[in-house]
């Protein structure tokens, strides 16, 4: 696609991939690009949506942006940044920030924000404890929802107990509660997140003004060494590796094992039985994390698919037996953090500046663990449960022929959330009158069309951004989370003609590493990683941390200094560059590259291209 004079392609210049028009049109009307969108800047949110979106899965974008906008604009009242608009084309989600520019409105919002944020910061620990209770209660509510079913005849107990509400009504009740609960989860998600970033950003701004030469990475290292629930699943895998060695069953864990066979073999020996008991301790709740970032139904949880933890066990066991340390370098990070905080404090001239510095870094340390910890409860535990409950409706509709003779329960995710409610109503009507539902004739060809569209969209790259590049991007969350800055966009626009072997991004974690690039474009390709590879991906997330023992460095298309990938890389001491824009397009699988995590530069060292690109698996 050709660029406009001032920047990236305009939204109106994008065309729907031929043959997928019907699938594109099925997304909600309010997510479709319109001509007016040409006047705005958009970027591809590959951080959260790196793969084409199934139609039901779009609820993960919609619910998130509804809640984010409400908290930005109406609850916390951020002074200059409201929410984000989102659009979808060819299965790819683009977002654009909604900013406040009127000085009077900013002043009004500053006054509101200060009193609201101050109350949260003052009561942070108490409120966060209450928040965990709210999330656990919400999870329990979802777990308690009954499995939808329709009996041949309503039991007499229904009316004898004075209820007299037929089973068909419960289908609607269960489904609507699932949708409501998922939306409510996202409101809980954003209750603290933006304030967590806000505390860090305030400290960041202070440091930039007080120490003009300080790097973004130096500031980020001042909040490293955190303890957060999202790291706990990996800690549990390490614990199980140590138990396997201790109990003498470590020889059962090898690469490419048959997991079911290993579980069966362990159940036959005493040490194995004890290890299996320890596995159950770890699984609930800590294996309620998905292999992705919680936005796709097919990124199953470790509990649903043990492949991720079992793939990590052999490496951890080998290192334990060799006497190597497998722990995160938390103590070292804390020591470095405290030294940095102390050294920079000594550069301040006045007691007033030192007091402000102490207050800001103290607040950042108090609130920052939430920035990662919330993901365990929200994007992972709750979202995985939500998708599994939707699968129960898939099972019910499959049993009633809605997906055709060759259908599977997963076909339910090719329906939008509105269409799924319509299909449920269809089934309710048919069950009530004793007639055949219309769904078995209606849905199979539509599902086939959408399956084909997803497969086709996967083959087509999409521009990292759309529209004219703005003079400045002032939304701090967009800067630090997504890594969208004016300077970075200029780098993205560079087609490589000036230096075709170099990519620039954010310096996420220092260290210089040379190695073989392994371009991973979907979760299904993680298994291709070999010891010492450099991971090149659109984005990674904390639940990939068990594979960090294999890789020597990481590079991503998107992400800023406070992106999840950058945070996790620092916590594991993994050299990384994030926010390169086009790494997965410009770096070929198998090429040798150099990653300079301290300078934020990736260099392609050779032009070796493999004979065939790895095929992307159709999800």
UniProtKB/TrEMBL annotation:
Signal peptide: none annotated. Residues 530-600 form the PEP-utilising enzyme mobile domain. It comes from the Bacteria. It holds the Pfam family PEP-utilizers. NCBIfam families: PRK08296.1-3, PRK08296.1-5. This is PEP-utilizing enzyme. It comes from Alteraurantiacibacter lauratis.
